[in-house]
Amino acid sequence: MLTELKKYELMKSAIDRCNGRVLEVLESSNVREAKIAAESFKNGGKRLRPALMILSSLAPTGAPLDSIDDPLIDLAAAVELTHLATLFHDDVIDEVETRRNQLSARAKYGNHTSVLAGDFVLAEALLLVQRSGLQHAMHEFLRTIRVLVQGESRETNHKFDFDMNEAVYFEIISEKSASLFSLSCKVGGMSRRSEYSDLLGHFGWNLGMAFQMIDDLDDMLDLPRGMVDCDLKNGYIALPVIHTITNLTDGHRQGLVDVIQTGKFTPDDERQIVLLCKENGGFDHAAGEINKHLDRAGEALDRFESDGDAKKLLGSVVLDLKTYAAVQIEGFREFTGSPA
């Protein structure tokens, strides 16, 4: 999904430092949950949020990628640990069996241990924020954690809610996902006392909104994208389906709801869902919303006068997401047997 970030050796070096800091924290503890957290962390991940924090600290002034100090690495590790904590908790809430092609912690060690691992990791994240010494960073982390919990609660309350409108969907993804992207970018700016910190937060929020809509498309069904998860089967309704249900009338609407509620999701069922979303503009609507937020993120970057590698890399993230979203939509169209 994010090809350009992987091409920069200096960026890899920064992320390696962040990974090292995370493992230093987790492996210094004898608590069982710390070892489980380290095991889960080593299973991989995009490390996108710490990358965004690091790049956001450099982009406004055009500072080079090798000018990254230890307090920023502490903060980057803290945001990755915060993300890891949400994954432990999400896996319990959603009864997830696999995470990154491995058994999830809850499947391997049980729900109780997975919850404790998430709690432990979150506490360690906040200790790193404190250790960084960055003024006001703790306030931003605490505020965001509170919003993350609100978003998770709101999403759970709207499972299988076929009357949910788009406004509620956008509130959910803003709180449960985009808020952490916003935190990453804003605190990155704050670490260099940038006057653009709020603008960077705006950039991160728009990027996070698009990212979550893209992720929801990936996980919407089993077959079209070849994924192993099926959010719709678990009652999480993605934007194309919300748009389609809202625009269908009479028996057509109830027919789609019935297909989802039966929970069978055979290839024919999934093809019917995709076809209805396509015919009623669900995928086009989702593509439009994704691109709207990515365009806004790009416009925020354009306000920086500098033109260093960090700004270029943030721009490449925007472009990579646009490209990936277009491939997603094409995949759904091909799944119905229709030309693009």
Describe this structure in words.
This protein has 340 residues and is an all-alpha fold. The protein has one domain: Orthogonal Bundle (Farnesyl Diphosphate Synthase). Helices cover 71% and strands 1% of the residues. The chain is built from 14 helices and 2 strands; from the N terminus they run H-H-H-H-E-E-H-H-H-H-H-H-H-H-H-H. It has a two-stranded antiparallel sheet. Helix 3 packs antiparallel against helix 14, helix 10 packs across helix 12 and helix 13 packs antiparallel against helix 14. The mean pLDDT is 92.
At a glance:
The chain has 340 residues and is mostly helical. It has helices spanning 9-27, 32-41, 48-58, 70-93, 105-109, 111-132, 137-157, 166-190, 197-219, 239-247, 250-262, 267-279, 282-301, 309-335; strands spanning 98-99, 102-103. It has one domain (4-335): Farnesyl Diphosphate Synthase, CATH 1.10.600.
Task: Chart the SSEs and their pairings.
Elements (H helix, E strand, L loop, with lengths): L8 H19 L4 H10 L6 H11 L11 H24 L4 E2 L2 E2 L1 H5 L1 H22 L4 H21 L8 H25 L6 H23 L19 H9 L2 H13 L4 H13 L2 H20 L7 H27 L5
Antiparallel strand pairs: 1-2
Descriptive tags:
mainly alpha; 1% strand; 340 residues; two-stranded antiparallel ribbon; 14 helices; Farnesyl Diphosphate Synthase
- Biggest sheet descriptor: 2 strands, antiparallel
The proportion of strand residues reads under 5%
Distance between the termini: 21 Å
CATH topology grouping: Farnesyl Diphosphate Synthase
Helix/strand/pairing category = mainly alpha
Spans of at least 5 consecutive residues with low confidence: none
How many separate structural domains?
A: 1
The name of the CATH superfamily reads Farnesyl Diphosphate Synthase
